[in-house]
Design brief:
alpha/beta; Rossmann fold; three-stranded antiparallel beta sheet; 10 strands
């Protein structure tokens, strides 16, 4: 068994944080800021993202720069990851938990290959305005896999009203891209047959959409593989918000 920590966010939220840090601490490379309250820093960046359209647009473009290998963006990203890692380690030490760090950034070089592999599946993807998507009329929601042994767990079909975005119109990649790439890596390179995703319960639909796309691509076979999501409740601040 291997425990993977998906640390190292690579999507829109890090674009938001990178831009906020650049503008708040313009000399961060020569004088790194002592950010001990990452939650407070995140909330300040999120407030700007939600209220300032120009900041939001630039943050989205910053993600594309980060994923494209911009070293300035990568330097901020590494700084923020180091801050997060120190806080994670305090908790892991208390709990006696040992994990392998393998976040979104690990899959960046593999994403294009994943997109191309899915594009090669007849009728699976839709391309429009530079975006590459997978539309799923409905998904299998609930534990499935490893043959009939899991039948008693109860799998229901659920309709979804939005697609998976394998590539955004601006050329950037998000959670859908990296999580589909992670599925492919775990199956083809790690050779696993059972994967359990443990996250906030709000992400359940996203993961079951990814699992369904994996089935339709021919990667996931319920007779041989078991992919499931185990969700926990929201972790909220004193203001009641996640």
């Amino acid at each position: 068994m291997e425990r993977l920590n998906h640390v190292g966010d690579w999507g829109t939220q890090f674009g938001m944080l990178i831009l906020h840090l650049r503008e708040t601490f313009p000399d961060f490379t020569s004088s790194p800021p002592n950010i001990t309250d990452l939650t407070g820093f995140y909330r300040a960046a999120k407030k700007r993202f939600d209220e300032d359209a120009a900041f939001k647009k630039q943050a989205q473009l910053t993600v594309v720069e980060l994923q494209g290998g911009d070293e300035d963006c990568a330097a901020v990203w590494r700084l923020l990851c180091d801050i997060s890692r120190k806080e994670f380690d305090k908790v892991y030490t208390r709990l006696g938990v040992v994990t392998t760090e393998r976040g979104e950034s690990f899959y960046n070089s593999r994403i294009q290959g994943t997109v191309e592999a899915l594009q090669a599946v007849p009728g699976l993807v839709t391309e429009s305005g530079g975006a590459v998507t997978v539309f799923l009329e409905d998904i299998a929601f609930g534990c499935a896999g490893l043959g009939a042994a899991s039948a008693s767990s109860g799998v229901r079909r659920q309709k979804v009203g939005y697609p998976l975005f394998l590539r955004k119109g601006d050329g950037g990649y998000g959670y859908d891209s990296t999580d589909m790439t992670a599925i492919r890596h775990r199956l083809e390179e790690m050779g696993v047959d059972w994967v359990v995703y443990v996250t906030d319960k709000r992400q359940a639909e996203h993961f079951y959409m990814c699992f369904e796309a994996g089935r339709r691509a021919g990667w996931l076979n319920d007779a041989k593989h078991r992919f499931e999501h185990v969700g926990f409740g929201m972790v909220c601040g004193e203001d009641g918000k996640p």
